[in-house]
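User: Here's a structure from my thesis project, written as structure tokens. My advisor, Dr. K., wants to see whether a designed sequence matches the one we expressed. Can you design one independently, without my sequence as a hint?
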């Protein structure tokens, strides 16, 4: 047995579990990202997301996060839906249509890690899916799964950007993959389309100006200066991905857990404005939309529909 065999086994098992891309990179210090992250934080582009400033050293070196780490296994799981919400409806980001991805992916990662231990022997490591100080896009980029576009999303040349990124950081020496070229070229569609000017320059997104930040992360009142700029987005935003030419290659996912509740595509703008706690619980019981809560969703709906009185 050698690291070539181990690498092939892990990639094959990942594919069996439904991950449509798997790449490997050496667990090392992210030298290129260090000054970028530091500068981003100094400019307060994380807004009220205080957790982004925590564990700075762990974000840049996985060997601190997972002692003895030798390899980072990056995985992509598609969530692009077959059926989307009507254009005239109030909208949520596509990633939140179905079951919260944290649960779906964590289960798959645990199975993958168990399979590695059964095949290879005891391998130490941890599973990560947007739940710890790991720079997902940086590792995915290093392992050749795509490039980080001008909208700061990872873009795969064959599948666009509607996917979740997760990792296994393990103490097993594997064959690393190399990065690929940036194919954004002169395109600025994402920058031109962003209604809140959150993409302050190519490859730099001010998180505190993003519609996703205002509708999910921000806990207080939404600033009046962005009133009228959200379109019909009440949870998250897909604008910079929807306009990206590379997403013409997006294909329907095959993960049943990501299918929306049957009532979600049927909700029109009036239904959203009249949504009750009971309907919220029924449709979004397992969804990431629960992160903002019923009260937060009501706030967002009122903000974009100019309803001044609280919803019942």
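Assistant: Designed independently from the structure alone:
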């Amino acid at each position: 047995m050698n690291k070539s065999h181990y690498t092939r086994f892990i990639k094959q098992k990942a594919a069996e579990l439904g991950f449509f891309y798997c790449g490997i990179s050496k667990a090392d210090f992210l030298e290129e990202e260090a000054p970028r992250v530091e500068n981003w934080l100094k400019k307060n582009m994380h807004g009220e997301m205080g957790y982004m400033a925590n564990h700075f050293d762990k974000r840049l070196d996985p060997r601190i996060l997972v002692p003895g780490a030798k390899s980072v296994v990056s995985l992509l799981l598609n969530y692009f839906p077959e059926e989307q919400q009507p254009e005239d409806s109030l909208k949520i980001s596509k990633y939140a249509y179905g079951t919260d991805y944290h649960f779906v992916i964590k289960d798959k990662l645990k199975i993958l890690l168990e399979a590695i231990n059964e095949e290879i022997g005891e391998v130490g490591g941890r599973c990560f899916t947007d739940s710890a100080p790991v720079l997902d896009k940086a590792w995915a980029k290093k392992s050749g799964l795509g490039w980080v576009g001008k909208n700061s999303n990872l873009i795969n040349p064959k599948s666009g950007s509607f996917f979740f990124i997760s990792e296994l950081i393990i103490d097993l020496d594997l064959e690393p993959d190399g990065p690929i070229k940036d194919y954004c070229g002169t395109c600025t569609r994402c920058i031109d389309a962003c209604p809140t000017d959150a993409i302050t320059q190519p490859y730099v997104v001010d998180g505190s100006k993003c519609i996703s930040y205002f509708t999910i992360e921000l806990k207080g009142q939404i600033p009046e200066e962005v009133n009228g700029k959200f379109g019909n987005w009440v949870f998250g935003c897909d604008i910079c991905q929807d306009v990206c030419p590379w997403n013409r290659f997006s294909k329907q996912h095959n993960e049943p857990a990501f299918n929306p509740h049957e009532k979600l595509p049927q909700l029109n703008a009036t239904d959203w404005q009249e949504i009750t706690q009971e309907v919220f619980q029924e449709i979004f019981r397992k969804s990431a939309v629960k992160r903002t809560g019923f009260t937060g969703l009501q706030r967002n709906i009122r903000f974009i529909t100019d309803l001044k009185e609280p919803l019942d």
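When you compare it with your expressed construct, this may help: Residues 144 and 178 are 5 Å apart (CA to CA).
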